[in-house]
Write a structure and sequence with these properties.
There is one protein chain. This protein has 323 residues and is an all-alpha fold. It is built from 13 helices and no strands. It is globular.
């Protein structure tokens, strides 16, 4: 498959990674896949510390691959607490429907003090869901570059005055917060198997779409204010599940927002070094060029960079714990 080196929709990247890794990923749990994401994001943090830009972008390419694969895995799970029938752009578009997910403005006009005191998150997510309807079609066709532009329009002035280290710290923080939600969902994995919980498959299916997650989260907003992890009350368990699923969607959006902030900051650094963005000896390549260099051969065919096969035929002898 011959492809452009830039501007391929993220949904197409998800298909590329599905073709490469769906067999291997079928043996992995979402929890194991998020651990892999964290491993590569830690490499991003190390590369920022060492000012190793080439290593940073390679780690970013692998992070993006695992993030797409994580969403792909959640897409194919049926009647599971991790099941979500949305693309990566579809998930991101809830928290960021072309405006800031906090102040609902573009560019962002957040007051950090007021933002930290925010308590009525269910109402905010309902508003964001309404805004998402206006932008979802566009988001579904967005490339990485398109997303970078969207986030630059919202947060460009803030990214401009922040250091790459500070942006990277925020990114790692969001990925870690997503891991908390992954852990919470993991703790509830077998909840539908116990008939006494009141959690049936129809409730899990409701939580498989962004719309259903937001609506369920809003429905249980009062219970969510007083979570009791020792309680086996049906409403309490539903609130815990809805809260964890809502948190995962939001944190994936936040993680991707800061991921794009890193890429935009790198672009800014490259321009400042050469003072001419049109020169061909750029110190930094676009992420999508790195992705193509890593995951496509010279003929334009996608293949695993480790074994050079499609689908991947890497010899992993412990797939049950993630490779």
């Amino acid at each position: 498959m011959a492809v452009q080196k830039n501007h391929m929709p993220i949904s197409e990247w998800q298909k590329v990674f599905s073709d490469l890794y769906c067999q291997a990923d079928s043996k992995r749990t979402p929890e194991q896949m998020w651990i892999a994401i964290m491993a590569h994001t830690s490499s991003i943090g190390e590369s920022i510390r060492r000012v190793a830009f080439e290593n940073l972008l390679n780690s970013a390419a692998h992070t993006f691959c695992w993030l797409c694969s994580f969403v792909n895995r959640c897409n194919v799970l049926k009647d599971d607490v991790f099941s979500i029938k949305e693309s990566l752009p579809g998930i991101v578009s809830l928290k960021y429907p072309a405006v800031c997910g906090h102040c609902l403005k573009k560019p962002c006009q957040c007051d950090p003090v007021k933002m930290d005191k925010e308590v009525d998150k269910p109402a905010k997510y309902v508003k964001l869901l309404d805004l998402r309807k206006l932008t979802l079609k566009s988001f579904e066709g967005y490339s990485v570059d398109d997303c970078k532009k969207v986030f630059n329009e919202i947060y460009g002035s803030m990214v401009h005055i922040q250091t790459l280290e500070n942006i990277g710290f925020h990114f790692l923080e969001e990925v870690g917060e997503a891991a908390v939600c992954v852990r919470q969902l993991s703790q509830l994995r077998k909840i539908a198997d116990d008939g006494s919980t009141g959690i049936d498959l129809s409730f899990l299916r409701q939580l498989s779409t962004v719309k259903g997650i937001v609506e369920s989260y809003a429905e249980h907003k009062e219970t969510l204010k007083h979570i009791n992890y020792a309680s086996r009350d049906s409403d309490m368990l539903k609130a815990r599940l809805a809260g964890a699923k809502m948190g995962l969607v939001v944190e994936i959006g936040d993680s991707f927002s800061w991921f794009c902030a890193i890429l935009n900051k790198l672009d800014s650094i490259a321009r400042s070094i050469y003072n001419d963005p049109d020169k061909h000896q750029d110190i930094l390549k676009p992420l999508e060029q790195i992705l193509h260099d890593v995951y496509f051969d010279t003929t334009g065919s996608a293949r695993c960079p480790s074994c050079n096969k499609k689908p991947c035929e890497c010899a992993f002898y412990n797939l049950d714990i993630g490779s």
